[in-house]
Design a protein that fits this description.
Belongs to the RNase T2 family. InterPro entries: RNase_T2-like, RNase_T2-like_sf, RNase_T2_His_AS_1, RNase_T2_His_AS_2. It holds the Pfam family Ribonuclease_T2. The chain is an alpha+beta fold. The protein has 2 domains: about 250 residues, Alpha-Beta Complex (Ribonuclease Rh, Chain A), CATH 3.90.730.10; about 40 residues, no CATH class. About 25% of the residues lie in helices and about 15% in strands. It has 12 helices and 12 strands. The strands form 4 sheets. Strands 3, 4, 6, 7 and 8 form a 5-stranded antiparallel sheet that branches. Strands 10-12-11 form a 3-stranded antiparallel sheet. A hairpin with a 5-residue loop joins strand 7 and strand 8. About 20% of the residues have low confidence.
Amino acid sequence: MRLPPRLALCLCLVIAQGCRTRPETPAAETPMTPTNTARPLAQATPEALEMEFGRPQATACNCFSPNPSATDGWVCATPRFGAYLLALTWAPNFCPGHPDKEQCEKLPGSFGATHLTLHGLWPQFNDAEAEQQQCTYPAYCGGLCECRSGAAPAKCFPDPATIPDTMGTYGPGFVTDNFFLANHEWTKHGSCTGMDSRSYFSSTIEALLSLPGDQGTPALLTDNVGKSVALDALRSAFGESGSVVFRCDDRCNLAEVGACFGVGAQGKPTTRIPCPRNVTDSSSNSCMGSGSQPRCPTVKVQAVKDDGPTPPATCGQPGQGPACTRDDTCRTQGFVRCAKSGCCTTVPKR
């Protein structure tokens, strides 16, 4: 039966109105991709790799986004960690390769010429935690993942007023070159400790001063500057030999000392503990090496201006630009000046 045209039109209008008022089924929400507190080294993007003590590691942040340029909403957690590694520098070995550093220009006659100085206090996973996390230490925690870049915002840096006055003696790199080391160490390592910056810097100094000898440096070192000492004797001089590691350069010159501490209330370091295997088996312990016998059975304790490592033939360290001979060459390329190293630098001269 064929409907009259007017009736057919009315029926169409009624059906159309019903279609418009029918509630639409909401689209299913896209499930959120779970974030991890660590990422295996093999899966980390190049910009996420960090070099510390010569060890490339994927930092244990949960800010690894599928899109490396995405930063909004990716906040780093503060994972649990079972140890601290107190990293100490032997400046007469460090400075020949970094002559443009302000602390190195002032090294002769200073505390650091004959004593260990602070590099940093680093949260460290114990071996069980490292196996679970697939990396050996946390870094850039508490929302500071964006601080990894060279153009880090001001929020990344600690208030210089929180740095103890004694840091100028025990950790000159923290208060020179526009607080370079304080900015780096607090952002990368201190942010994962659960302490504020004032407590972190104070705890770093306290850990140093708890070590044997004169203000954290055993007499075996201070009495043998410019000479050589047996690695076994050096290990014994620090006591609790399983809690200390030594890094040597290719010529068995002492470069750094690392001491392992436990973690106590409010994240502060406690007493010395045996170093995790991921520390003792790393380049942090390169004086010993990976064999059954020490790579460097005898370690040289360099003096200032001693025959140290040759400065790099090419410029490319963090903050360095191309090779130079004049300041204006660097300024035209966006750098501040030509440093003593023969490389352009972003660090102003005070």
